[in-house]
Design a protein that fits this description.
By secondary structure, this protein is α+β, with helices and mostly antiparallel strands. The protein has helices spanning 39-55, 110-124; strands at 10-14, 17-26, 60-65, 75-81, 90-94, 97-105, 136-143, 146-152. The chain contains 2 helices and 8 strands, in the order E-E-H-E-E-E-E-H-E-E. The chain starts with 9 loop residues before the first strand and ends with a strand. The model is unreliable at 1-7 (pLDDT under 50).
């Protein structure tokens, strides 16, 4: 994670954005077992369906939404693009509001996995001055080596 502001994130306002692509419902506990994992197969399907868009350098969005309650419950993950996409099966609006942005650079997907561990640890800390909204959180893949994780936070 690249250091910024208070250590590892930047508090920003993000405008609403429509993402079109494909989705799967899962929970983090299921992702620990290859027999129940949905995220890796979703990424494989995404690359198989939209490889030409990915190679054009268009940012890829991974939107986490429809949370059952928090990061331990079920949620839906939508992979897509911020424009009209032929063969998109679903769409989701990233909600406008305040987000903490965690910038990641390095080897993917290991860096993203470590980034989420940092996010969960940060928000679990008694020193954390922010409260997660569990509304829409998302990743923006700018390149094969750079990703931003955005976590929705409550207004203070």
């Amino acid at each position: 994670i690249i250091a910024a502001d208070e250590g590892c994130y930047i508090d920003i306002y993000f405008e609403e954005k429509q993402i079109n692509g494909i989705s799967a419902r899962t929970k983090n506990a299921n992702e620990q077992d290859a027999n129940t994992a949905r995220i890796a197969p979703l990424w494989a399907q995404f690359y198989a369906s939209f490889a030409e868009k990915v190679t054009e350098g268009i940012p890829v969005y991974a939107v986490y939404h429809a949370y059952e309650y928090d990061f331990n419950g079920e949620y839906t993950l939508t992979l897509g693009f911020a424009n009209d996409v032929k063969d998109a099966k679903t769409g989701i609006s990233i909600q406008a509001g305040r987000y903490l942005r965690f910038r990641l650079e390095g080897e993917m997907p290991a860096e993203v996995i470590n980034g989420w561990i940092t996010v969960w640890s940060y928000f679990s800390s008694p020193d954390c001055s922010y409260v997660r909204r569990y509304f829409t959180d998302f990743e923006i893949y700018h390149s094969a080596q750079q990703v931003d994780i955005y976590i929705a936070i409550q207004d203070t």
